[in-house]
């Protein structure tokens, strides 16, 4: 698996080549001058919090949305060219097949849209729907609907597969089976681009992670590189070290007085964002400092982003606005 | 699965020079599909299967004209008009014409609006499926259901009511009814693309009943209040009705039936064709509006 993160090279062939890709809704910039080169055979995760512009990006790469500015080529052609669509499969959010068809009938219908297709049995097997093949679509559960969406996406044996938040409705076991199938496709040299707001999922699957927030690429690299950037722990503790001194500790990305604590208290509870809580605690203990009421938790991605993007501004975690691009998009459509 | 087909495929029609035309990486399990006609056949099959499983459709659209004929046409079977046409035959024509308009509004209007609302049409656009296949399958599918309506109504009339049919006139009538299904499809498509998916069903019902009454499908036009009867000649469905009655019976009997034919057949044909083309353009505009909106 060749992973050449963000190499803007124009000599190696690319499955996707986007430059300056921009989508604006009025004053709001959902996707902001995105440059993207995806190499054949890559499994790429687009990671970002809700409203980061993931879906909008995927829909532009699919040719379903027209960029306000910039250009996209998929397999060297326009994304909405018939030749391109014959090689692309997509699992989109919010799309359901005709309810009175059975699972097998819907899959077979979509197979016939493509110049080449996997066999019906094979598709149902890969999507773990063999037992549900005779069920009407109206009777499917949310997770089964999601698997059907996957089945429809892979029906045409695509060289490039887009998966927009594919595991949102799946339970843990179904997720596991799902990713196993995706890996199998990748093993055939297929290129896979999926969006997620789950860091662990991106880490487990992708060989390249593109971190976006507010329509901009914040980081682009291997899962290890991204984890080092994003994976933050939240340490809550009471200590005699001051906020400013603590913020100067290596690996510490942010320190705040816990909400509800009075800033004037002698030792208020502090909330520390750090990639290396072990180092932090080791230093505190080594220095003989007070450490009590200690908790260490994983920082959710949203909070991590806030510390990553606005590291200097110390925005409160609650400041994630309701007017994020995806909200606007929904109300506009 | 054909190896030859696999090497023949790569999308060489692209016009770029970026060297990004990576070869197709087919799975060993993949096989070549039958192409555009195969797409159309699959689409038609899905259309027939899904429609025939929706009770609202089978009962509301296909069965209702037959039931209405049984209730109102059958009791009049055997009554002869001056030219010798059986009133049962006239009612067969009326109820079938009603069925055709109902098919147009509900298959093309409400049905398409539903698939549009559920995101299915959007998903189809992400595939290489040529969109004409979708529309053609809808039209061909509804011709099949129209055939069922005609067959059912005819069976009740001919077998249940012993209504005598003139073979040539019956054949002409059936052809006009089938042509009407195609002609009014664009009216339905316009409905589907110009109203919000959830409103389409209500609007469909709102438009459909007045159209049927004003076109004389339920009562002969001379029994309608004057004001309403004056509106009728401005409705394409009224002209369609005139064509249908003129096909099933001689002018003398059409007049006796109360349908007061005015103008030549060409005027009626003109109205129906104008409706087909006019609504066709409207539907196309709606379809394009939808495309550009979705791309926003």
TrEMBL record, chain A:
GO terms for biological process: response to antibiotic. It is found in: Cell membrane. It is a peripheral membrane protein. GO terms for molecular function: ATP binding; ATP hydrolysis activity. Its main location: membrane. The keyword Transport applies. CDD domains: ABC_DR_subfamily_A. Residues 16-239 form the ABC transporter domain. Keywords: Antibiotic resistance, ATP-binding, Nucleotide-binding, Transport. GO terms for cellular component: plasma membrane. The keyword Nucleotide-binding applies. Coiled coil: none annotated. InterPro entries: AAA+_ATPase, ABC_transporter-like_ATP-bd, ABC_transporter-like_CS, ABC_transporter_ATP-binding, P-loop_NTPase. Pfam families: ABC_tran. This is ABC transporter ATP-binding protein.
Automatic annotation (TrEMBL), chain B:
InterPro entries: ABC2_TM (IPR013525), ABC_2_transport (IPR000412), Nod_factor_ABC_transporter (IPR051784). It comes from the Bacteria. Its main location: membrane. One of its GO terms (molecular function) is ABC-type transporter activity. The chain crosses the membrane at residues 57-75, 87-110, 131-154, 174-195, 202-221, 265-283. Keywords: Antibiotic resistance, Membrane, Transmembrane, Transmembrane helix. Residues 18-27 have a biased composition (Basic and acidic residues). This is ABC transporter permease. It comes from Candidatus Phosphoribacter hodrii.
